[in-house]
Amino acid sequence: MNPAYIIVIITMIASWLIQRRLQSKFERYSQVGLQSNLSGKQIAELMLADHGINDVRVISTPGRLTDHYNPADKTVNLSEAVYADRSAAAAAVAAHECGHAVQHATAYAALQFRSAMVPALSAVSKFMPILLFLGVIMLNNTPLPLTIGVGLFALTTLFSFVTLPVEFDASKRALAWIDRRGIVTPQEHAMAKDALKWAALTYVVAALGSLATLLYYASFLMGRRRD
Q1: Which of 214, 215, 212, 217 is nearest to 135 (CA)?
Q2: pLDDT per position as a tens digit, 74-126
């Protein structure tokens, strides 16, 4: 069996396990009420204000673990539970997403680079799977479609790895601020840190999975050249 194929399977299993663990952690820490009694919305607005950011709105978005910062319309989108919740998990998520807003406001280089890649990735993602599929089928006749497909997939893999410092930095900013501002107690801080650690691991596994998939398709090209 192709080694890259084995790695893909392993990363898929690891991703599933980490997602399960992440959900378990957030459910557990969502039951721990903050002594500061601040909701996710209040924490987000306070962190933005402390960093002099006045043009970003904090809004509620449907779903679970759907929290994100949208630089296009400058909104911190908190899932319904995080938006209203007053727990260690909510504090971690709200502050993390505001960490991205701070990155945007301070022109954090990694975030700028990742944002610049988004339009290109949005364009290629529509036909990249077709190129890869046809490339494998047509490989005996011509390597061109698969070569182009692998090149485009390499961009998505690069995006996955560029995302890592962006996520790690947002968590670092979040944890430092909630500690400095007295949002959490030492025990609550440990819970928030643990929750964000597991969230970060999902990005690590996603990046490794993308790399494994890239190597899987690249192995077809390398095999053809050896032939």
Answers
A1: 217
A2: 999 999 989 999 999 999 999 999 999 999 999 999 999 999 999 989 888 88
CA-to-CA separations, 89 to 13, 130, 166, in angstroms, rounded: 25, 40, 20
Q: Are 65 and 78 in contact (CB under 8 A)?
A: no
Mapped onto helix, strand or coil, the DSSP state of residue 75 is strand
CA dist list (Å): 122 to 32, 125, 135: 39, 5, 20
Structure tokens that stand for 92 in this block: 């971690």
For residue 150, give the 3-state DSSP assignment. helix
Q: For residues 132 and 136, give the distance between their C-alpha atoms in angstroms, rounded to a whole number.
A: 6
pLDDT of 136-188, one tens digit each? 898 888 889 999 999 999 999 999 999 999 999 999 999 999 999 999 999 99
Residues 6+ apart with CB under 8 A from 69: 75, 76, 77, 97, 98, 100, 101, 104
- Which sequence spans correspond to the domains of the chain? 3-32+95-224
Query: In the beta sheet, which residues pair with residue 59?
Result: 77
CA dihedral 140, 141, 144, 150 (to 10 degrees): -20
- Distance, in Å, from the CA atom of 93 to the CA atom of 40, rounded to the nearest integer, reads 8
